[in-house]
Amino acid sequence: MTWLAWTTFAVALVLALVRVPAALRGENRLMLGLFALFAAAILLSIGGPYVAIDSLLGGINLANLLLRFIIYGVCLLLAVRVSRAFAARGAEGVLLGPWGLAALAVVAAGTVLSFLLMNQMPSSVGLSALDNDPWFDVYAGLGRIYPTFTGVVLLPSLFRSARGGVRGPLRAAAGLLGTAYVLLACTNTFVLMPTGWTGVMQVMNYGTLLLLFSGLAVIWIAAVRGRRRARTAPA
Q1: Does 234 fall in a domain?
Q2: In the chain, how many domains are there?
Q3: Do residues 60 and 107 make contact, with C-beta atoms less than 8 angstroms apart?
Q4: For residue 136, what is the domain's CATH number?
Q5: Rounded to the nearest 5°, which phi and psi values hold at 185?
Q6: Mean pLDDT of all residues belonging to the chain
Q7: Are 136 and 111 in contact (CB under 8 A)?
Q8: Residue 232 included in any domain
Q9: Full-prediction pTM beyond 0.85?
Q10: Residue 89 dihedral angles phi and psi, to the nearest 5°
């Protein structure tokens, strides 16, 4: 499934590059940062780049720990961007309020602690060489909890929007994003899957990302069209 990882990386990189001109004008730099972080996270999930980067960090899988924190940051920024796009003030309040930040802090602390308690060698993408370590499941599970939390917070507003609470393009975006977050929640079942189902897991992971990218692209296109209509509207 390496081709799927590289394809997803290419999509993220192209979306980041497309946002550069607008970011240079001072418009919505958050989206450029998001797609750049997405590209970095995907690159760290591919064998060759992962091993090369991890060797620079000492060859003890610090690249995987870095990947976890990139994902946490992406999930928070993405969720805030989506909540603002759909005027979901309640969701944004939860994400940036005491409960949301406490959830992030607890998961982050648990991630670092379980990483330190786990064997850190040999260097391997996805820690595939360490999956028999008793702390591996804790570390891997924590890596899915916070992303799932952000999705659960957003799903009610996305479902309302997909049913007709917003205009056409944003309804489509809400459907794509909602589907992505449901699929993300389903990744918590990985611990129940047989070890031979690696391909299924990868399809779910990269499928989630491609759905998220599609939803964000629709939001961006709708925003660009809205600005153009506003500029051409008669005074």
Answers
A1: no
A2: 1
A3: no
A4: 1.20.1070
A5: -60, -35
A6: 86
A7: no
A8: no
A9: yes
A10: -65, -35
